[in-house]
Fold each of these.
Amino acid sequence: MPELTYLEAIRQGIWEEMERDDRVFMMGEDIGAYGGAFKLSAGMLEKFGARRVMDTPLSENAFLGAAIGAAIMGLRPIVELQFADFITTAYDLIVNYAAKARYRWGAGVPLVIRGPAGGGVHGGPFHSNNPEIPFVHTPGLKVVVPATAYDAKGLIKAAIRDPDPVLYFEHKLLYRRIKEDIPPEDYVVPLGKARIARSGRDISVITYGAMVYIALEAAEALAREGIELEVVDLRCLVPLDEEAILNSVMKTTRVLLLHEDTQTGGFAGELTARITEKAFDYLDAPPIRVTAPDCPVPYSPPLEEAFLPKVKDVVKAARYLKAY
Amino acid sequence: MTKISADLGRRLLYTMKLMRELENRIEKLYRQGKIVGGVFFGRGQEAISAGSAILTEIDDVVCPSHRDLAAFLIRGMEPWVVVAHYLGRQDGPTRGRDGNTHMGALQHHIISYISSMAAIVPVANGVALSFQYQQQRNVVLCYFGDGATSRGEWHEALNFAAVFKLPIVYICNNNQYAYSTPVSRQMAVPHIVDRARAYGFPCERVDGNDVLAVYEATEKAMERARRGEGPTLLECETFRMTGHSAHDGAEYVPKELFEKWAKKCPIIRFEKFLLDETILSRTEVKRLYQQVENEVEEAVSRAERSPYPDPGKMLEGVFADTGGPPSPSATTRREKN
């Protein structure tokens, strides 16, 4: 089995879908001749031509809107945001147009909006955001947050085949840092199915994206103290695999919510509410959040380091939960 | 005005009159408290959507805005369905999920606009892009008002369409006011075409109260688009003979302007042309107006018989897999042809 990085896995997923279905095409800034800011689409212009790998003006509203219109007409556009942070510039078209079209007048919008999110690469306040929450909160949108190369490929393929708008946030820190063997055959990872990244009896860590690795590292460290973490990798925030979350929590009776996004209004709050509403009687300790603080993502290395949730934060929270 | 066939004359006059009378009747329903949401009219602007949408071929697409009712009617949305929509009934094109003129119907190739003005413009481009992508000879007619031309999305979209030479015709209802804001507060250049010209495609000012002028300009622009030569913008100059919506008395508009533009009513003007040129007889015109009147009454009574939507089905259709009737598709129809 060929070993692929997370980035190569996304590229391969898109590539295969474009080979499979002529309706699938890409739009974005600098994705053609240059191959994309992170070279994710390298070689795709040569393979598929300018009709299907469209370099656009610097104009998120224009190309996102065009993708929505093309999707309504039955095409399957994939829009690349050069950085996920820039999604705010086309917020209206996503939440008011794409998200509501099926509900309002039955017009499905089979569109994928993807782009690099997350910090840890010294991108500063405009190239490091985790912008998932406003879209999680908007009915009609699906939100995918892959953590592994296998999932990155299977989820992008599922997203492309999905009949509704999907936001696919790639973690740029993972692009070239992780690698794994990818089966050569066609496969999809269905949207809305979480993955148990590590099984354990003591504490559930519910997380996604690059934080899965922080959780796994913490689990290693804690195992040496006899504390066993169960790491639940959500894969998708919408649709949410509530069953997997509740099953894990009911088993461990203690839960830690971990994300790289900032805290107030972050996904951990929603998870806490659902868990306490539906599994309160099972809990032996209050749910604990480990997240970034309520602060823009700073640039300078010591500041960014202080901003991002770290293994030691998880370890500390887990010890507290265990002792509670 | 040029010579036209009796058939075209009849269709144009009928559509404009139907738009006028249907909107008048809708306004009455609003005043009676039967329509609970906002109602928006194109009174005095009927020539623009009628004179342009009448030119669409079966697989062309229209993206009408809120003063373009004739485009909906020409594309096959029945008057009673429009009324059912305003009344929030099950048989409206959004099954009561939306009101206003937010009506879309893929089976009629009508793409719905949304309330944030100009958001439809990049979306309309995407429809045009789908034609180009699939090498279809079809054209999109995209409508908006003068206010929308101040939005960033409008500028981004015009530029995008120009770069990719998309088969689209932009039709601006320049009715001089965006809600209460006059064009002079919207921009420091005199005309919409002055803004649009920067993007590098033909732009033309058209008498928006002359249905044949709109027809001719649209015909030329659509041919250009079908030849693959890209977009055109038509600035149809007109006047909003009403408030922004039915709740708005438009006290901020100088009375003389209403008086001046009342004399240019596109329906009276076209009717006179048809009679003067002996294209239609007085009896035919009378019969046609009677037909419109009957259809409007029939539309209202049929719409009022339509049930309200079932709150138990409110969550249907948020996603494809959360239930609801299957979505009509623009592509299925094309495959059938």
Amino acid sequence: MIRIPIRQSILVVIFSLVVVRMVPACANPDLSGHVSDFRASQVSRVEALLRFGDANNLCFGIEYVDSALLRERVEINVQSGTVEDAVKSIMDGSIRVSIKVVDGVVEVGPLISNPSKIKIFDHVLPVFQSKRGSLQEISNLLRMDLVVDLNPDITGFAGHYPTGDRKDQVGPFLENKRSVRYLLNALLVQSKARAWISCVDWRHLENIDALRTRPVWTFVEPGTHGVSDYSSDLASIATAVESSVSPN
Amino acid sequence: MLRFSTYLYLAAFLFLVQCHGSDLRAQEATVDGSSAEQRPSRHAQQVKVFEQHAPFWTSEPGWDTKLELRNNLAARSIVVAAHLHLSSGKEIVLNQITIDPYAALSLSINELLQEKAPELIGQPDSYGSVSLRFASFSPMNLYATVIPTASRQPISFRIPARARSIDLDTLSDVNETLDGIWWKARTGLKDLLVVSNGADAEVEGTISLFDAEGKMWNESLLLKSYQMVRMNVMDLLHESGLTGNYGGIRLQFVSRGSSVSVVHLMYDETGKFSSSLDLTRHSSNTNDLPDVASESGAWTARAPMLALRDPDPSLGLPADTTLQPSVFFRNTTVRFVTAHVSIKWRSDSQKGEVTLPPLNLQPLSTQQLEIWVMQDHLHIPANAHWALVSFTANASPQEIVATASSRNCTGEYGVETSFATGQGGSHYAGGQWVSDASHNQIAAFTNVGSAPSEVLLTLHYKGGLQKYELQQTIAPNDQLWVNLTQLLGSHTPDRNGNFLPSDAKSFTYDVEEMEPKSNSLIASDLNIDSAAALVIPNCPFCCGITLTSPEWDPDPVDVLISTFDGVSIVGNNGCSNAPTVITTTFTTWSSSNSNVAAVTKAQVQGVSPGNAIGTAQGLVNGPGQCACSPHTVQVSVPINVGPYKIEPISTIEQGAAVCPTGQQGWSRMVTDQLQFANGAGYLHAGIVVADTLTIGSTNQIGLPPGVYQTGSYPTDSNGSWPDSYFVCTKSCPVPGYTNALQTWTYNSLPLGHANSIVYKCTSITIDGF
């Protein structure tokens, strides 16, 4: 039997706690895992999904969004069951939603109707390289790299992005031939964010030409407006989603 | 090698940082939030120094003067510094006097002089005026009365102090006039007109006397700083050559007239007689006239406590006394005026009302209406004790001066009564009431409105610490009579079941209309000294609303486009300073720019982004002696319709941007804020703002068109959000700049202002910030 001196034992425990705290918010998800009852009142389905993630330590990549899912307030009452069933129920069981776990993230997207048509999140970047930086800063870099890759003649950018939690640092990254979705997941699992959410109506994700220069995702961070209140962030995303349907 | 304890502390520190980092940030945010723009609270109570001035005190041989002070505030003591101005020009500052909330003090000036200037007591030239200086919210928080009293004779006068402010008087010093009546009540009288300048500057004026027919005599008058002069009216009449038993007095001042106080005293040092006659004050600047008649076009002046031939035993006059009530009317105008007089009488068991024939008043004339002669003819019962005399006329209320007197045939016993020409009020504050073996108080509270009025009479006793509340309904044109000694003896429980303790002797009182307040009360009371057979009329203070206090609520008005916001006008009670909603008294509402904001009664509608001024005008019942004094008041408020723009309010950090390979640039993290046009923050959370960027005509750092990162952001409760501006180009580093226009929407509605952004490789400025 290995005997560990008591003082070292205390150190191990404390360092373990520190390490545990430094692990990002996402747990390793198991779609078949059991979850208990979940209720949410007068919230949008996407907000309910984020709250469900809070309750079960899940992170989401949500590609299946439209104005109704983001804005319409509903009563959610999910009986205990599997994670997958709960997510389906929250997202309205009648819609054709794909739920899978990829790289530690629960991806919620539309069921593929035409595999030959790729969506914007399937686009592969030849290389993505960045130093360590805040989640929103690196997310902005990823966006710029995507735009440059889609528009090789682009010579510059200007604008602004949400500052977010500047202490929520990710990277450094050096990834070759990775899809945007993969890179978003990579950013997400290193950060304290709860989800990345598409800013494009799910019906328009394949219209890459129209998306060449517009923002297509937002990382939703907890704590910006309180852990359980995502309504303001989701209202911003809804505005963007609606403009993706009627850009003019 | 690090010691174990060092590891332990390090580990613990890291753990705490991990665990509580967010809490610390939250605390920072709280601190930041609290340092954000805070609007001042509405009706912030600012303490200022005020002054009240009484024209006369005396410590001449055989005289003393009482200083009766009442604190009208419910929760704050008032410290008063009394300055005695002597006729010689000397000033004596007495020891400070502290009055507790709702308490009253009665102090002898002779005793106060004992400590400061005993050599002045009982000297022939020891008289003058008195100024009372104190710090409070309003000059009306103190109710002060000066009571010169002869020590060996039942001679006493109550002289209210006047606030040297705009609240009691006219709103300017232009051509101020005081009108009164002289009257030879009996032979051998000292008939003094005391004129006192309460300002630290010279005042010029004219004194005029008129006989009953209106024949006039006048003389100029010059008052130095704080100077007081006593003029013997009988000497002036002799000098003027005017004859008769009564007539008119007029004092006119061309500047600083509002600082002049006047009191007309009549007394007989050898016999039992003393009386003071009021003068009516008005300004010839019509803008500053009290607006008693401006709303309805009609007005009524009332004397609520005229003692009839058979005096009420409560007055404590000798049993066989018969009074001779009469009323003097003076027309101060140069045209014919007709007055309509009515009398509501009451005996112990009956009430009735009679209307007198119209009274035609010649220009500048004075008439005496001998009620006692007419009493039988008018079918007023012989045993009726009291009358409420009312009159109205085809003139403004300031143009007819009236006073009522009830004296026995020798003039020895009786009482004078003032006419209240102002507006009824909702709240009166009364000075010290005393009930003991030889003192009593009688008060009449008259409902001059057209609907029943529910009133609450509160007696404050034990230094203002205890109260007794009597609630009663007064029918229209009826009166609530209070006899203090009888009330004490009746052992009547108040509305809370409390009884007045038998040892309570000294009181102050408030009488207030309960909701809905309709400004329909007139109050007056009599101080009775039965040992001296002396009855002194007293006018409680009509609190009204401090005329400088009305404000919009909220102020400023922040309103969204296409929404309606309710607003109100709030003023401060002239006595207690309590905020009071007076929206209904404001009848004219307007906007300086109806394309930006539409203003209707108690409502503001946002029309388009921008600023406007909202204005409300109404007839505000200002404070006054005996009755309130309505004035037209106009109050304005800035209206911000918006939001209008988004501006950075602080820089979080800036430096080289994280750019795609081959590009360089700048990043600047700021806190953006949604704002009104005037730069005030639109402090609402959850509003989604979104923008578009358009490149300008100058593009020296090579930004391509159409590739601008824009987005939508939710505001926090400060209307703010952290925002990271950036620029990346292949051209950088390079000198020069590129300008761009950033237009915004809030909740999908366009904002009126677009930001001008200047991008350089090493800086970003937004609207010059």
Amino acid sequence: VSAALRQGPAPAGQFDVAVVGGGAVGCAIARGLSTRSASCVLIEASADVGAGTSKANTAILHTGFDAKPGTIESGLVARGYGLLRDYAAEVGIPTADLGALMIAWSPEQREALIEVAAKARENGYEDTRPVDLEELYAREPNIGPGAEGALEIPGEGIVCPFTTTLAYATEAVGAGCELVLNAAVTAVRRSGDLHEIDTARGPVRARYLVNAAGLRSDEVDAMLGHSDFTVTARRGELIVFDKLARGLLNHVLLPVPTEKTKGVLVSPTIYGNVLLGPTADDIEDKTDRSTTAEGLASLMEAGKRIMPGLVDHEVTATYVGLRAATEHRDYQLETHPDQNYVCAGGIRSTGITGSLAIAEWVREALADGGLDLDSTPAKTDLRMPNIGEFGERPYQRGGRIVCFCERVTRGEIDSALHGPIPPADLDGLRRRTRTLMGRCQGFFCGAEVAELMEGRDGDR
Amino acid sequence: MAIDDGPIVIGGGPSGLAAAIGLRELGISPVTVIEREGEAGGIPRHSNHTGFGWKDFRKVMTGPRYAALYRDHAEAAGIEVLTETMVTDWEGPRGLKITEPRGRWDVQPPAIVLATGCRERPRSARLVPGSRPAGVMTTSTLQQLVHLRGQKVGRRAVIVGAEHVSFSAVATLAHGGASVAGLVTELPHHQSLPAFRAGAALRYRAPVWPRTKVSAIHGSERVESVELTDLDSESTRTVECDLVIFTADWIPDHELAVMAGCELDAGSRGPLIDQALRTTQPGVFAAGNLLHPAETADVCALDGRHVAPSVAAYLRGSGDWPASVRMTARAPLSWIAPNLLLATGHPPPRGRFLLRSTEFVRRARLRVRQGGRELWSGRVGRLVPGRSSYIPANWAGKVDPNAGPVTVAVK
């Protein structure tokens, strides 16, 4: 009998592997292990999977063209890109092949595009192509005046980060992985050849420990006696514009990156909106997901330059994502065979794209360290509900629409509420169905949806 | 008989139901109303206070009673009201894709009336920074929680806005057992009637804080406080509360109008319409708060009555879609409706044009001009943001169809 997801004591007994962190990376790792017959426990501090950095990002499916050549990140993003595209097609994660245009707004930036193209080749990405101004304005007629040139990166796309993480977690749980939510890790001890992990829901015992704790990955690493890196929350503020703005653009529009950040992009979202962001500010508090007046104003300013017509549209949502930045400009992937411990920390903006490759890397590290795994994973018949605008959605076949703005049917809400990993709150329901994600933000359906959420039975 | 043998009204609020009833009275059949909610009646269904029905029924009743009355009239008139039914796509001039519980189907009605109403801008659209805790909502959500579902919503609220609807939120909060810390407006005064203001101050002890904005919302799970900024001194202070109600700041629900290809007015963001309530798309009419966010329900219903003969004439006539002249409002006026002028001087709903201002203007004099020619000028009293003023329409016949756009401005 499976333990409760969100309350009660953590499951007793000993597991092969404990994965700490239920973001995209942790869930991908748990999936990869449990579908190869490892007994696995996935420990997450918050009330849901994918509720941290994985839910609040730009949702770009990166080719890895702009990674720092030679880094672990460069290789894993490139590999993860292909793995995730295949997996998305298999289980129905919404994606869209839009292609990106990196736009130079000054002669210096135009020069820099040459370096970007050279770096892409170093990263093994051969498909970039310079785009002249005539072509640029023909393909994106609504961008602002003053572009100096552009580089096309045809492989860049977008992906639904919510469905990605939930698919991994659902498959993991289906394969027997114990998911333990609301279980922040407070200490890790060695007890014989076992890790004894103290969580907010009591101790968990496992032979191997994988740290995928994102913003807290440095803290978990320290619990195992290491001090290789420090995570600083890099705040990214983002603005989501109304769907009526969607017709303004056709591609992911990238800025020319600087030392510190990839800069402010404008992109269609998988849900049919337009995204503007992110900012990049290092902040002290790893829990502070507040937007700021300055940040939002700077984004509107940038948006006005990139696409003047965009800022006349209504804003549907604003949010903050916190990336796990470290002092090293690379993923912090480290094996500690003497401790049966693998660290997968410091994964910042590219974690969704890289997730399956990171999981593969961790799996191989654990196998090298003596963990017995099946050579091929169990077949899955998982099929995720489509919440993206690039495929058919349930309302297009009929149904009682509850959330009008996002056209979410009662059937979709019921399925989410009774799914294998039901939402803990309205925000969780939003990530599973898009309910309340739209322009009215609950004006019409907020009360009914709240009641559906409250009234449901089952595990919370 | 298929439903697209007759006109389809999209939206079953006061304007949509009144339009449908008017069409039946003119002998049009069938007349179908498409309503996405489980019940027709629109916003008045959960506006559980009195004051509804004065201009259309000449008696005053509560919102729910008013909504029920329109439902009864629609039923008596033999109108098919399809609830839980939503237009989810628009193809070509009048091709509708409709989703309802049993499936999805296509219709191609000979005429369409858009009566999709308006909504309050939520917190996000107003770019209010801070965290995203629970307890932030619009008046509509508040009313539905309190009046339709009898839920407890919180203990102490800050209300953003100081219009009629904001004071109505004060009463709803009192009904739901919550107190009001204050009403915040960036304007120099509240925008409601003195009696509402005095009622809020005396009965509910709710102060109005003018020239103040909510500059941040704080709280992790639940709202804990808001930061208020005084716009004159730029000083800030923190007010503890567990609810923030965003009121007024209405925007038309214009998605279908956009999908239909209707041109919008930049000020109201509703579709352009002439005095007969024709949009810029032949065969597509519009009525209600989609055109003038937000008027009282009776004004919307009278729009519905006004559009019915226009639709009937179109259905029985040659299908002409007459040319018109654009009318725009100059700042501080934000919009005027109708905003397309027919040279015939056809009267607008209630024989008047509605307009709004972004600023308070005392004893305002307005002037309507076409090119260098004055069509009308006169006094309109005090302009109040969020409240309509009116100008008569007796001058509309003077419009020259070939003399370019018409402007209305404060003299």
Amino acid sequence: MPDRESHTSFDAILASSVHDMKNSINLLTSSLEDVLAQAGNQGMPGLEKMTQMLYESRRVSSHLMQLLSIYKIDRSAYPVEIEQHDVAEFCHEIILQSQSLLRSSTLSFEIVCPEGLYWYFDRELVGSAISGAINNAARYARSQVALIAREAGGSLEIRVEDDGVGYPQALLQSGTAMAQGVDFASGSTGLGLHFASRIARLHQEKGRAGQAFIENGGTYGGGCFVLTLP
Amino acid sequence: MGIEIFQGATSGPDIHFEALKVLLVDDFQGIRTMLREMLKSIGFQEIDQATEGNQAIAALSAKKYDIVLCDFNLGHGKNGQHVLEEAKIRHLIKPTTVWIMITAEKTMDMVVGAAEFRPDDYLIKPLSEGLLRTRLEKHILKKEAMADIQRLIGRKDYAAAIQQCDAHLKAGKGNEHELLRLKCDLCLQNGDAQGARQIYEKLLEQRRLPWAVTGLARLHFQAGELQQARDLLQEVLRENKTYLEAYDLLAKTHEALGDAGEAQQVLSHALELSPNSIKRQSTVGDLAMKTGDLEAAEKAFKKTIALGEHSIFKAPAAYLGLAKVYSEKEEPDEALKVLGTVRKAFDESTEVALQASIAESAVFARDGKPERARAALQEANALLAELGDTPNTNSTIEMANVLLSLGETGQATELLQQVVKNHHDNQAVLDQIQQTFDRAGLGAEGQQAIQTSRQEVIDINNRGVQLARAGKFDDALALLRQAAQMLPQNARIQLNCCKLLVAVMQQQGKNTALMHEARHYIDRVLALNPQDADYQVVTAALDKLDSE
């Protein structure tokens, strides 16, 4: 919502436009989901194309949401709420949000998380970073995507792994740089990773901060997105 | 140990959705239709709808709902948070009602309210049916599991509720963290600061949680350990720049440390982050008055009034504050106009009219119109007689101020002495009264009057104790009963009267009438000062008598 009291700087115009675009994209996404749900398993012609459209619109929606969150975090206008959550429950909820996409594709999906694991984080921010990573993995996976959460070295490690060909070497090398800022030269803004790094660093405990990075390998030998939270 | 997804979607826990009543509040027809379809597909049958805040309040007044799904942004008028606050204060929802706020994005405005006015959960749009179902299931089951504790809280039986929390914790029933947080709140409600401190410290061993550090700081603040409170709150804010509760408490701490300017600065910063909290705006107004910053006070009070339009927290204090600002800016006509509106804004309530009349007399007195000031005071006295009650502390001091400026020193002193007697152990109030005398050039006389009245109450207390020790219970009771009735706002007297009744019953046996009387006094203590250190001890003694 535009704030009447703020200056109409370019930043503010951009933020309010992003907000507006996000709402439009969300309407488009839910219409697409409706059509796909109605089509069901009847093998509607063009189903594959529609799934592709859904993936793209979800990608835009998730990026706009992340942009808006970064804008607000920069201005201390985002109510960060680091609270204790049931990690397994959190993972299931993430998948429920991506339900429409995973259902209409032929991918098989797996959650690996021990019961009774509790951790401290902002549910919405971490959820947004992980959903973005799942969306990305679904795009590049051949047939498998996994969401893995576990405690490792006093931190919570959340991994999104796929069985695709993995990230290109150039991207892996510039990954850290992208996490720090936008790399226009590589042609990819790396917004998802940048966002994940920003929100990871909001999570601090006893001088340790969270991190986000990408690598190749994991269970299926494909691309891996990794978020660690102290 | 991979888990196949989607299997849980159809075989969830056994909940009879069809028996639960749902209210759906959203200003967009499209969204309402979509949510309604989702709810029907989950299994709900009784689904009512409202399109805006007042309609929602009407629906909530007519029926007790089990689930409320409410959009935060409802267009013009009340927003979702206003509706929730009103529903809670007016008891329009049950303790077991699940309230879910739906929103396009998380904003600072959504966390303005105190913890007791938070919804059970937020859902960020776009919603999926699966997520809606999971969250509803989770909260329905959680409320069900906590129903026994909620029932005890509803009866204000906090000690039993705490015991029940312990039973849940021991049985591993429910989320440990949430139970500890609830238990902590209950300890505070019950005046058990030590119990609350132990929980905070236990939690903080695991993690520096901002709410727990802030809670610990609040305990330091209440114990008068202001430096410790300040240091802890500054620690919280270094790492959690958007944690508003810490700003509010830090401002109070600075104020108690005697630095109103610093307090105002801290709150102004919090207001930049979240300008829509009524309470914070009105506190900033009060602080700005203290530091003499009339511009800031005017701005804050105007904003407070505007925010009050749709809120259950609308209060006359901001109007009175704004009138005072205008009066001090030598704009008496503006001041009187504001005092005219406050009467209308509160439906001509006698209590508000009383406060407005007192404020009017102050405006006239300052404007050099003693006759009109006297007339306004007369009106106030008539309203006072109609109410048959004492006005609140601030209004009484204000009234005394006017009388002093009119040269009615005797009457003013009498009023101020009455306030002293009701607050004989509250240094902040005593200071305020001394300042009132000082401004009228009556510093020495004032000091004498305050001292005499304080001593009078102390003497009554001491005499009561002596009589009781000497076994003269009837004489002691007669003395303290009379004092308790004359000084209804004096927590110490109420408490001692209750203690005496307990002693009498311990010696002479339980008695329904005395038990009832004792409960009356202890309830007053809780209302006047929930953190009174003796409250818990006396309540425990009463409970023990009750169970014998």
